[in-house]
Amino acid sequence: MAPPIRVRRPTCEQERVRPRARPTRASCEGTSPRGPPQRAPRVCEEESSCAKSGRRHALSLCVFSSFSPQFLWGVRSERTLAAPVGSLRAPTARERAAIKDGLSQVSKGKAPVLLRLVFHDAGTFDRETGRGGPNGSVRFELDRPESRGLKRGLKVVGDVKESIAAKGKVDLSYADLIVVLGAWAVEVCGGPRMDVLIGRIDASEPDAENMIPDENLPAQGIKESFARMGLDTLDLVALSGSHALGGKGYGDPLTFDNVYYKTLLEKPWLSQDSMKQMIGIPSDRVLPDDLECRPIIEKYASSQAAFFADFASSYAKITTLGYSS
């Protein structure tokens, strides 16, 4: 009796898959010069063979690498993103000790302005050019309208810098210390503890003007400003929680909690009470009516733990813009 005939399925090398074509500007706008859409590429069914040859992973890269970061962000641009300007690292034990000693001299009352200083320094970043970001350039931007009141915070940064250099023989950049003091401000007011990387390079001149989102922008305009930095809507809503500090009407001005989000849902500025009408700023008031922002606001209003976790993640993102770690 003749042996049975075995039918072998094609391996990945036999079943070659042609990468999907890169989307064109026309296809992004709704018209395709290539006719009907192509069928999605088949994935080899012989998984063990794929794993040995590495073709399964290569296939995934072929499919997803056809979409540029600009496409994913909805930006119709062929410009490539700027490369990181440097890498960051964890502080050494000696640096941590010097930082701890320097922070012990700062009063809790300075927390609101120190946290605000972080966002005004980092908020100038442009992900396409790689310019701006957490580079200490805010030192040269104090005469700008959006920088009003930041001089007090910068003096604290300078004092801490001098102290740790004299006592601990540690020289940290202004950019690093702004981020460190911002994280300290959150923690000392009851917020999450956040580890901070160091190694940022100080700028020697101011960043471009009109990069900080205007507080009178509509929600869509604010989201576009964050997208320019490489941040998304969740980052926007999470980082806006920093407005809990500083006496804008969101509970105790020196307590970092989720009262900010509960207040946004209540919309006290619509009240007949003239005092309640003063709560918040325009950029806060537009968020609850935005379809993307509202579910996140509701999530944080019901869970302070969720807010703390996302804030820590978004803080790490905005304070490392332009750097690799």
Automatic annotation (TrEMBL):
InterPro entries named among the record's database cross-references: Ccp1-like (IPR044831), Haem_peroxidase (IPR002016), Haem_peroxidase_sf (IPR010255), Peroxidase_I (IPR002207), Peroxidases_AS (IPR019794), Peroxidases_heam-ligand_BS (IPR019793)
Keywords, ordered alphabetically: Heme, Iron, Metal-binding, Oxidoreductase, Peroxidase
Keyword Ribonucleoprotein carried by entry: no
Presence of keyword Iron: yes
Pfam families in alphabetical order: peroxidase
EC number: 1.11.1.11
Biological process terms in GO annotation: cellular response to oxidative stress; hydrogen peroxide catabolic process; response to reactive oxygen species
Membrane spanning residue stretches: none
Cofactor(s) needed by this chain: heme b
Chain segments carrying region Disordered: 1-43
Residue ranges of every copy of the Plant heme peroxidase family profile domain listed in the record: 111-325
GO function terms (MF aspect): heme binding; L-ascorbate peroxidase activity; metal ion binding
Family indicated by similarity: Belongs to the peroxidase family. Ascorbate peroxidase subfamily.
Name of the protein: L-ascorbate peroxidase
Organism: Chloropicon roscoffensis
Taxonomy of the source species: Eukaryota, Viridiplantae, Chlorophyta, Chloropicophyceae, Chloropicales
